[in-house]
Amino acid sequence: MRFQQFIGMICVSALLAGCAGRAANPVTINQMGDENKSCQVIKSEIKTIENNIQRLIPESNKTGKNVALGITGLIVWPAWLFMDLSNAEKEEINAYRARHDRLITLAQTKNCNNQIAHS
After folding, report:
1. Distance of alpha carbon 30 from alpha carbon 99, whole angstroms
2. CA pair distance 68, 79, nearest whole angstrom
3. Residue 23, by phi and psi: left (phi above 0), alpha (psi -120 to 50) or beta?
């Protein structure tokens, strides 16, 4: 009977671990109205994207935390429920980088480079 409870607990933990983390919410790379944006708006959006990337980078490194929770989970199994196994932050960073590149290209097309480079 005890073995069956142990196996049941492992199965429930595995199911819950599959749901661990949050869903990614990546930014859209090409947005409506991009071509109509002024150099100042492009500059502002590039700065916002750079700030968002800097905010997400520390959150994307979860290895140490997950290892600690995994080891703790061997003793106290509910610790496994707090592991974040998603790659949401990395997906969002990649989308922000692609959007950043899109805006840089747009700025070059509009000859905004001097305004953006000297900010």
Report:
1. 7
2. 9
3. beta
